[in-house]
Amino acid sequence: MTNKRIRKAVFPVAGLGTRFLPATKTVPKEMLPIIDRPLIQYAVDEAIEAGCDTLVFVTNRYKHAVADYFDKAYELEQKLERAGKTEQLELVRHVLPEGVRAVFVTQAEALGLGHAVLCAKEIVGDEPFAVLLPDDLIWNRGPGALKQMADAAQASGASEIAVQDVPPESTGSYGIVATEAFKGREGRIHGIVEKPAPAEAPSNLAVVGRYVLSPRIFQQLEATTPGAGGEIQLTDAIAALLKEEAVNAYRFQGTRFDCGTHIGLIEATIRYALDHEKLSDPAREMMQRALGELGVRDLE
Ligand code: G1P
Questions:
Q1: Does 93 score more than 60 pLDDT?
Q2: Among 60, 5, 11, CA closest to 39
Q3: How high is the mean pLDDT of the chain?
């Protein structure tokens, strides 16, 4: 790769979100909120913090909500302005800061994550770029996970893939990497497999949805045939890439919530509430009360 700083971020948002049906009949899973912001906004803010100014959303033709969300809402803005609701007006206006552009690409068929990333090829061009999976919400008091990785990629000139340890029995839900010994937060990857059974997994170091990738990945994706689940897997293209270029696993600082599952979304909501300026105290009291009441009931 090169040491060029990433400027473009790809958000694959074409999935059906079947785990959250019936809500996802009409609301894309990326639009499910944690407190008052949809999941996609957290991922977008992380990309912008990392230095990205071009956001590429790979969506499907039925999903308009994400595009509508980032579009200007003239009528709403006018109403808020007339009503003197300046605070709310600012919130609505600043889903994207000035100088950041959103580009929408349609993934015509649901052929997998790798295929979704390939759909962004023409817009990304020949430069390193980020991929963020908005289901994976990463909370950190310091710099966001992608900023940490973009800095690391700029220094190393290598692709960087976010990883974290998972329980050995969970390897079947993730891309799993085999690495050289870690130096600080980075360890060079020499093998990667998509969703191996625990007995076949090379480690319990799992890929989390943040990637800084060399543009060379597009050639690898074009040559990738459907893998696990009949889909074109990003993991398989990374496996081919690492035979040609350095690809590092990056142990980010922060807590990751798997908002693609019910319990992960609940956990994230609880954590953000407990860390929230105004909601922290009432949330704490409410949780204690709920636990107390349920505890009493359990004894009855
Ligand atoms: C995708 C990737 C997988 C990665 C995971 C992280 O899987 O294919 O390698 O570990 O995201 O969330 P998905 O969760 O979309 O099935």
A1: yes
A2: 11
A3: 93
